[in-house]
Amino acid sequence: MEEMRCTSPSLARMHLIKGKNAIDRYLAVHIKGLSKQEAAAYRNSYKKNICLDMLQQGYHKSFAELFTLIEQWNALREASGPGSAIWLEKSLEEQPDKLDQLHCFLTRAEAAQQSENYEEVYSNQLNLAYCFNKLEDRWLRNYFYEQCYKTAQLIKIDGGKKEAEAHSNMGLVYEEQGHFLKAVEHYEAFYNLTVGRTWKDDTGRNFNSLACEHLWRIYTLLADKMLANKEHQEAIRILTKALKMAEEAENMKMEGETAFCLGIAYFSAGELQKATLKLNTYLNISKQLEDYVGLGRAYQTVARVLLSQGKKGEAIRYLEMFMDIAKKVQLSQSLVDACIFLGNIYNESGNYNKACEYFSQAFEAANALSDLALMNEIKIPSISSACWTGKKIEVTCSMTLLLWMPNKKKTLKIWLATFQLLKKLSDLLKSF
């Protein structure tokens, strides 16, 4: 929803001036024509003018709420201490534009509350939340989302639409704070209230589809934490719920991502057949979406599952299929990963010539990316492993690598020394 700005006509009539210097200049020019009340207003701080105006109009609740928010900001600042981001910001009472918005919408909300027009109360509280959506103001936004949630419980004439929206916003608050279980409670309530409804938000998004996406995301985040803690069965249970949400939202990309996560979870739990099934689902969805990066991830993970079952030939076949695709669509990063994987398989099998061939291809692909860190990763642990482990060393591999290196004297010297050492070792091993 677009942020609504509010100017207060009553404050405009009082001619409240923002900033001490502006007040002093104004008084110097116009002091003779002012009443005592007006002169006092100009001399007071802008915050005090706001508070006085609220009290004079009978908005005692708004006054108390504003005063409490200013105190909360000061407490947050003190707790964070010097050097923190909030310490460097101006106090809320020193930001007239924000005080204007608070004065406007708080008093409107209080007036609506006095007449028990809770929809109007909710609307003004929500506008305040939207006013404070910047990162440094999130604590204010969260406060007003919570007020919206409380008010929404009192609205009985819209079938629960505002209550659903309030649950969605509270879910977002808890998700941002890392309280995932609390977020799940609100997102599930949001979902339950929107089942079978045609409600849409201000951008035209269907509420129920939005609820499915929120639940999918939070379930996936929860499952990630569970997998990190090796809670595999619980992760599988949560991911199964996430898959249901993805299917209900009719979002193939979400379905694919969840199938992949389920494949990983089953693999970690030792359920290899189920892992392969879910990974192949992800593979097929990636093909339909022409998501070649996802396709590479699927091929490589299936290959890992096959290797764990001792099916080395099938694993190699999957990786070689992906290499063909990666070359066609110029996915250099994915090609690097596949080549390193194949190189490691052949290296561990003792086929050092084949290993060196794939490591060389990996290095070529990394060179095309101009990724020096990645090239170093390939040439040092991978190629050295293949070349030093075998009794037959491919000296040409090192010579080619030398030519690929960036034209830097220091790097060239290092690789020249490495090449000479490998050549001596090769000559020595040939005599065995």
Automatic annotation (TrEMBL):
<dbReference type="GO" id="GO:0003341">
    <property type="term" value="P:cilium movement"/>
</dbReference>
<keyword id="KW-0802">TPR repeat</keyword>
<protein>
    <recommendedName>
        <fullName>Tetratricopeptide repeat protein 29</fullName>
    </recommendedName>
</protein>
<dbReference type="InterPro" id="IPR051476">
    <property type="entry name" value="Bac_ResReg_Asp_Phosphatase"/>
</dbReference>
<keyword id="KW-0677">Repeat</keyword>
<comment type="function">
    <text>Axonemal protein which is implicated in axonemal and/or peri-axonemal structure assembly and regulates flagellum assembly and beating and therefore sperm motility.</text>
</comment>
<dbReference type="InterPro" id="IPR019734">
    <property type="entry name" value="TPR_rpt"/>
</dbReference>
<dbReference type="GO" id="GO:0005737">
    <property type="term" value="C:cytoplasm"/>
</dbReference>
<keyword id="KW-0963">Cytoplasm</keyword>
<dbReference type="GO" id="GO:0036126">
    <property type="term" value="C:sperm flagellum"/>
</dbReference>
<feature type="repeat" description="TPR">
    <location>
        <begin position="336"/>
        <end position="369"/>
    </location>
</feature>
<feature type="repeat" description="TPR">
    <location>
        <begin position="164"/>
        <end position="197"/>
    </location>
</feature>
<dbReference type="Pfam" id="PF13181">
    <property type="entry name" value="TPR_8"/>
</dbReference>
<dbReference type="InterPro" id="IPR011990">
    <property type="entry name" value="TPR-like_helical_dom_sf"/>
</dbReference>
